[in-house]
């Protein structure tokens, strides 16, 4: 392992671990509450499938935007986000296989915390939401919570057989599609849930155009700390 990989790995602190456990606990409560709500919903299969597909695309888009942001802007010394998120993304580039050695908490804790924003409204005021909205938010919460797990499976030599089946079917991020991102300079294929949105975002110059606009407005340079 390189010195940089070791240094970045050592940034995984006890307080970050506590934060991840809190994320899993909160997400667990909210996801169970949201699931109980949506199981009581009477809707057609088409509505359920529509909400599921839209939620998968949405979670994939969110993963791509977050991944791009943390790969592109700031550094380890960025307040709050440097240690909370940017470190793990920078570490992933210098040691892509490290993710396969992370346990369930380190893999999923941070994303679980983010999923609370989606699951909590359904768990607490789901009765006041339209059925489709509750279904969408609940499915999106699950996919956001377990995006890093899907990313981890895409890096494993031998993921569970059922996961490999989903990867081949295009329903989970595939190793082949994700390998594109790990080619230097890591400037495409940012989406790591299903990978569905990568074609759209990469072929439309979405990220490069966003970088030009942000640079023009703020003066910041993309990947300046790499
Ligand atoms: Zn990356
Ligand atoms: Zn990766």
- Cα-atom Rg, whole angstroms? 18 Å
Helix content: 55-70%
Helical stretch tally: 11
Q: What is the terminal separation in angstroms?
A: 18 Å
Number of strands: 0
* Biggest beta sheet attributes: none
Helices and strands, in order, run as HHHHHHHHHHH
Report low-confidence residues grouped into runs of 5 or more.
Answer: none
Q: Please, could you describe this protein's structure?
A:
By secondary structure, this protein is an all-alpha fold. The chain is built from eleven helices and no strands. The chain has one domain (about 5-220). The chain starts with a helix and ends in an 8-residue tail after the last helix. It has helices at about 5-10, 15-40, 45-70, 80-95, 105-125, 130-145, 145-155, 160-170, 175-180, 200-205, 205-220. It binds zinc ion (ZN) (2 copies). One zinc ion binds near residues 178 and 182.
Secondary-structure map with pairings?
Elements: H1 3-9, H2 14-39, H3 45-72, H4 81-94, H5 104-125, H6 131-145, H7 147-155, H8 161-168, H9 175-179, H10 198-203, H11 206-218
Key attributes of the depicted protein:
mainly alpha; 226 residues; binds zinc ion; 11 helices
Summarize the structure.
The chain is an all-alpha fold and 226 residues long. The chain is 68% helix and 0% strand.
